[in-house]
DNA sequence: CACCACTTCCTA
DNA sequence: AGGAAGTGGTGT
């Protein structure tokens, strides 16, 4: 009997990224299974791939001769994960290997890479070979480089850097070496805190709901629990129950490195059984953790977005903490959403799903309201602590009465009072740097990035204008580059400015500033947070990182410097984001014995998102938001697909995007609404123009069909085209 | 029309 | 990745 199989090969080139049929040689025919990793001949090289299908015959007669599998590797993926990949590949209109790769250990997908260097300079290069000359010049400067280094730095298409390299190598001007990617061993620091607390009645009820759903219906449970209501303890008890039933658990958190507390709690409650997966692990660390999961040693996987692909066979439960967080959506290809993957995966492996948040996403709230999810509420903080008091401060009134500072009078006196009581303060502002733009008062010139269509942010520390999108930086000018005026002013406050102002009003006060400028060094964020917790500073000034599940008992006052920043983003989720942000930031206050006070400064106090957040009117907010979404046709009342075009040539984008629009219009017009092509809100980044076509449809299947159609349309396109299913933002 | 530098296509 | 086939410019 002749056996054949389909193999999804791991090659970089988009057009070759498919499944191919291979013959199965007799010596492995009896042992080969779906999910096995195999080595196959591909053109004239050998590549690894995953077996996705097996046949007991030659599937169909072909006009080419089948090649045979060379060998089988030790690793194989559970069949359920291969099935899941097929489902996801179809849903997102993406080659199946892109998902299989997320499930495999890093060693398999990393290979040796070719490194080129100059070895002889006395050979003559034809005067017509411009590319060869450019490449040679570049190599002389940097000494060694890979194909991808060169194509990125010289902005050449991969195929033409490559042919130049081949030509140069043949002439003996440069030589090729191989470099192996090295891995480092894993280092774990553990400090155990293990407290078994008695559950409150609300916690007990939530746990009962989760367990009931786990035992029979496998329905999804949404835990809506106010900040500080003890969701983590409920998760842990639920996990204990799942483990007792002989099943395993995946728990997703927004970014594990931000919550070392969570990790130490898990390590102490499930000693030796917890594996961690997140983006900051080294390749070696990731490999080790993967092996611990694969071998069955780890029963609980705690991790960020990509941990949803952990190689677990007997999965009983998936928990997604801070369910509303946008970091669960992958911002690049493949544009998967870990929440959607979790839903698919739970269904496939007959596991139950638990979502938890103090500010559930509008989509999840809607599903709970429609009884699709079971809803469990935790309305009280543990140990009888009260929720903080929030007060809106109308900054227009402050201006009218002559206060032009970034702090309102109330916030200022609140700060003074809190400092006198030796309690701590958090000031929140979602912008780093000093000033958000630099403008000439005389001619209106705004300092912009050379490569992006973005205003430069002024940074006081090195007196520079920086682009927060590409990193471009110049010395801030004293005179206007356009009209030579000296009347240059800095507008829009960032965290640096807030810190300066604090120092001005309270010269003796110690401050810590947390943003990506001050925490660029590895581990410095953790140190700064610990320092603040121990009282090393009275005031913490920070961007969104301080908004997340941190716990500082001595914080009595929180100031939101500008609640409008998130609100004014050109995005249909801006209201939801603002509501979530205020609620989450406010939740940092009054975690100890001190009742908390929160001042919310805004120029739009009438905004319902701000008012609802300040009144803890969660159902009021969702009702209003759902009403708006229903009227304007936004999720959860429709599905969306954003098609993104990127290119250095704007006219080319316009032409090709218009072509795609025409095709979509002709084929799918009955089922979809088409918006665009229009320039994206961030219309140019790193010298690449960006255009969007946004599609809305009530039928998800239509959008799935379009995704798969896009794969075909993507062939032979000169501009970079990608498609983002259910995008979180359109920037 | 031979020769070349470079691009595009294709992989089972 | 790397070989084959295709494109288009140049020199005699």
TrEMBL record:
Record EC number: 5.6.2.4
Catalytic activity annotation: ATP + H2O = ADP + phosphate + H(+); Couples ATP hydrolysis with the unwinding of duplex DNA by translocating in the 3'-5' direction
Stretches assigned to the Helicase C-terminal domain: 475-629
GO annotation terms (biological process): DNA recombination; DNA replication initiation; DNA replication, synthesis of primer; double-strand break repair
A Gene Ontology cellular-component term: primosome complex
Named cofactor requirement(s): Zn(2+)
Molecular function terms, GO-annotated: 3'-5' DNA helicase activity; ATP binding; ATP hydrolysis activity; DNA binding; zinc ion binding
Positions with a binding annotation for Zn(2+) 1: 440, 443, 480, 483
Domain Helicase ATP-binding: 212-378
Family statement drawn from the similarity comment of this UniProt entry: Belongs to the helicase family. PriA subfamily.
Known role: Initiates the restart of stalled replication forks, which reloads the replicative helicase on sites other than the origin of replication. Recognizes and binds to abandoned replication forks and remodels them to uncover a helicase loading site. Promotes assembly of the primosome at these replication forks.
Assembly with partners or alone: Component of the replication restart primosome.
PANTHER family with a match to the protein in the record: PRIMOSOMAL PROTEIN N
Name the record gives this protein: Replication restart protein PriA
Protein's organism: Tepidanaerobacter acetatoxydans (strain DSM 21804 / JCM 16047 / Re1)
Gene assigned in the entry: priA
């Amino acid at each position: 009997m002749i056996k054949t199989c389909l193999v999804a090969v791991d090659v970089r080139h988009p057009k070759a990224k498919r499944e191919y049929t291979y013959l199965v040689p007799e010596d492995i025919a009896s042992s080969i299974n779906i999910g096995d990793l195999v080595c196959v001949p591909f053109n004239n090289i050998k590549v690894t791939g995953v077996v996705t299908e097996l046949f007991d015959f030659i599937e169909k007669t072909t006009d080419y001769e089948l090649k045979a599998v060379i060998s089988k590797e030790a690793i194989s993926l559970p069949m359920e994960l291969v099935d899941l990949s097929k489902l996801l590949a179809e849903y997102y209109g993406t080659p199946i290997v892109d998902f299989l790769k997320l499930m495999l250990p890093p060693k398999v997908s990393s290979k040796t890479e070719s490194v080129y260097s100059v070895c002889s300079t006395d050979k003559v290069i034809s005067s017509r070979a411009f590319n060869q000359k450019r490449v040679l010049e570049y190599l002389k400067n940097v000494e060694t480089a890979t194909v991808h280094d060169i194509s990125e730095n010289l902005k050449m298409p991969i195929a033409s850097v490559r042919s130049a390299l081949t030509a140069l190598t043949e002439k003996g001007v440069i030589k090729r070496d191989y470099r192996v990617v090295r891995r480092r061993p894993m280092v774990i620091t553990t400090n155990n805190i293990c407290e078994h607390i008695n559950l409150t009645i609300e916690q007990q009820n939530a746990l009962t709901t989760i367990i009931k759903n786990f035992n029979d219906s496998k329905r999804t449970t949404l835990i809506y629990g106010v900040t500080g209501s003890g969701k983590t303890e409920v998760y842990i008890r639920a996990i204990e129950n799942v483990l007792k039933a002989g099943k395993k658990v995946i728990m997703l958190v927004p970014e594990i490195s931000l919550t070392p507390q969570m990790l130490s709690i898990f390590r102490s409650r499930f000693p030796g059984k917890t594996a961690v997966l997140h983006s900051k692990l080294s390749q070696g660390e990731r490999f080790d953790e993967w092996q611990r999961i694969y071998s069955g040693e780890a029963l609980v996987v705690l991790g960020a977005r990509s941990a949803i692909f952990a190689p677990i066979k007997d999965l009983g439960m998936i928990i997604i903490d801070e369910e509303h967080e946008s970091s669960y959506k992958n911002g690049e290809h493949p544009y998967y959403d870990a929440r959607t993957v979790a839903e698919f995966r739970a269904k496939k492996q007959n596991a139950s799903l638990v979502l938890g948040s103090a500010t559930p996403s509008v989509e999840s709230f809607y599903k709970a309201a429609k009884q699709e999810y079971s809803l469990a509420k935790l309305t009280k903080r543990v140990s009888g602590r009260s929720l903080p008091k929030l007060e809106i401060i109308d900054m227009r009134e402050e201006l009218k009465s002559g206060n032009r500072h970034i702090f309102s009078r109330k916030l200022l006196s609140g700060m003074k009072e809190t400092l006198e009581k030796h309690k701590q303060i958090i000031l929140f502002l979602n912008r780093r740097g000093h000033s958000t733009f630099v403008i000439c008062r005389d001619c209106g010139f705004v300092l912009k990035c050379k490569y992006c269509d973005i205003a430069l942010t002024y940074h006081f520390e090195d007196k520079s204008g920086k682009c927060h999108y590409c990193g471009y930086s110049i010395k801030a000018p004293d005179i206007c580059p356009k009209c030579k005026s000296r009347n240059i002013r800095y507008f829009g406050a960032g965290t640096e400015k807030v810190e300066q102002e604090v120092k001005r009003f309270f010269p003796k006060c110690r401050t810590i500033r947390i943003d990506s400028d001050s925490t660029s060094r590895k581990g410095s964020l953790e140190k700064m947070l610990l320092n603040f917790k121990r009282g090393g500073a009275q005031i913490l000034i920070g961007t969104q990182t301080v908004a997340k599940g941190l716990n500082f008992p001595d914080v009595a006052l929180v100031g939101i410097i500008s609640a409008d920043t998130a609100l004014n983003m050109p995005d249909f989720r801006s209201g939801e984001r603002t509501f979530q942000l205020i609620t989450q930031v406010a939740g940092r206050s009054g975690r100890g014995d001190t009742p908390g006070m929160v001042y919310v400064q805004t120029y739009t106090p009438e905004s319902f998102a701000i008012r609802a957040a300040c009144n803890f009117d969660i159902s009021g907010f969702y009702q209003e938001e759902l009403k708006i979404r229903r009227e304007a046709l936004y999720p959860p009342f429709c599905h969306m697909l954003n098609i993104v075009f990127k290119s250095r040539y704007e006219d080319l984008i316009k032409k090709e995007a218009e072509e795609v629009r025409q095709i979509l219009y002709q084929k799918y017009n009955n089922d979809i609404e088409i918006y665009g092509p229009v320039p994206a809100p961030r219309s140019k980044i790193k010298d690449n123009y960006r255009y969007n076509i946004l599609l809305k449809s009530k039928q998800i299947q239509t959008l799935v069909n379009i995704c798969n159609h896009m794969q075909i349309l993507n062939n032979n396109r000169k501009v970079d085209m990608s498609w983002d299913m259910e995008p979180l933002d359109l920037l």
